[in-house]
Amino acid sequence: MYLKLFQPAVAFIVKTCSMVLLGLSCCTGGTEGNHPEVPVADSIGWLLDKSMSLPDSMTHTAMEYAEKALQISRRKNPGKTVMFNLYYHLGVLSEQTGNYNLATAYFKEALAFSGKEQLRKTGNVFNYLGQMAFQQGKYDVAMEYFPKALNIRIQLNDAEGQATSYLNIGTAYQKEGYYGQAQEQYERSLNLYSMLNHETGKADCLNNLGGLRLEQNRPKEALEYYFETEKIYRNNNNYEQLRRIYNNIGNTYQSMGDTEQARKYYFMTLKLSNSLSSPVALAEINYTIGNFLNEINQPDSAISFYGNAIEIAESSGLYEVLSDALEERSLLFAKSKRYQEAYNDHVASSYIYNILNNKEQTRAFTQKSMQYQFDIQNQQQMFRNRLQRTFIIALSVVVFLVGALGLLYYRSYVRKKKDSELLAKQKTEITDSIRYASLIQKATFPVKEFADIVLSDYFIYFKPRDILSGDFYWVYYTDDYIVVAVADCTGHGVPGAMTSMLGISALNKITSRMHIPKASKILDELRLEIVSVLNPVGYDDRRCDGMDIALAVIHTQKREIDFAGAYNPLYLIRNGQLFEKKADKMPIGLYVKNNTLFTSNRFDYVPGDIIYMFTDGYADQFGGAKNSKFKTKNFKQLLLDISKQPMEEQERILGKTHLEWKGSNAQLDDILVVGVKLT
Length: 679
What we know:
679 residues; 25 helices; globular; Phosphatase 2c, domain 1
């Protein structure tokens, strides 16, 4: 009874938590690789040139150089040309990262410094502003900027630029339903591209003309344009655009009622999307095929393709597709009388839709993004704190439900398993809820993109024993310091995970108020925080909950490490030798000598050194011929043996060795090993 009452609530809470996570992670950037420090150089030109020389894969690093140049320019007033180029470059970088509001602000600043010598770039600014407004659905705003770009390109006799502008204007007209004007602009663009022998431009025009005909309910004419477009893209091996054309052809045949041809082209699109390994393409085509199969009354197959779309969209942050696919699958579940699944999908879809369409939340998110790299650490801390609060609430409900489940099991035993089928179902649903909670826990760990920038060359071998983990890793970055921690909390599963959330929250709070982080001081304050939460009544309560931890503060300029540990040591390998930096023999938690302070172990490092921090799960695993522990001695030797391998390969070998040693034995404990090669 209790479980039946609260289970829908926990499913809603935990699933909602995961959707909040999705909504908040939507603007997480991509991996940038190495993250060179911006030199303190009083040269705007040098910083701007450096920013512009970086490849597209290092957009965020390029932003750092450009923003540093902007800071200096506000003091030095370098002149209109430099200021125009600086704001223009910042606008381009922001547009590339999808931060349209920030890019718009930068481009408008650039316009304030534009002159005759920047006329071509000024045309580009108007074009960028129009394209971003179009992407945001502000077609009236786009129509304000596109003609301005066209007028400048006419002055410059830039035929290709004019063709682009006519195409853009036509697209805006089409979106607003002005089909005659749209066709006129497309034909002007097509004539210019044909005169220039610009095949890709011609194909873009033909594709848009096909879409226009389809909207006008003239599908046969649309197919003629699409087939002509397909020929150009195929001849130019443009497979990304080719898959779009296949999809358009499939849509056209579907509108004509030719299901066989529609199916053929949709699955051609799917095959091509798989070869391109594009999450966007795969999510879109799986959703499209789901709609197609739904329309031709194949609900089971449609549910399967919607499921594919949901899985891909959720893992890739494609929230519009995710919301739409969840809602369509919800309707099919309802028709099949699978009401609980229909309800779950509908709640998730509605929540994401509200997040995407809530203007106040969008405005708040935009204001945060304006701070960009200067406030990155504060953004991450606030993000994680929100997740931790949500996570702890969700886990508390799960703990209550697990207790309720135990009570029901007892009652069902007394009543000779009267409700066994119901219990099995409820147990499955609680397990699903805990799986959702595990996604939230993982999201509070450092995101890969942040770790890639801060740690550069590293690996994280993380293998929880249960769905939730009591082990956690944590990374903090400020000025010239990188702080890395690896911790093992008391217990496994739900209890361990809750303690890990307390640990991460406390570490964020402690380090954010330290100007110069000191390892021993961090652990002293962490112990106070954990004891105050887990043992609020003082020493009369003898619970020994807490954690063991290894924490290293890396001073990148001095090439110095400040280490402190609670039971967990740090290993440093240099030139084939392993040096152990010992930890204090006391935990983060209630201890008989709680007044004893943690000690710092400071040492220098040289580029190429590797530090390893870990929990005891790897060495304590039973296995091997004698079914004994792997042991610390063997663990040290394994690290020495693999230390010359690339970090990614080291992680693979650790995983392979663990599985071979464990054999058929159960995993004894959570396992976490972090290795960082120092530069």
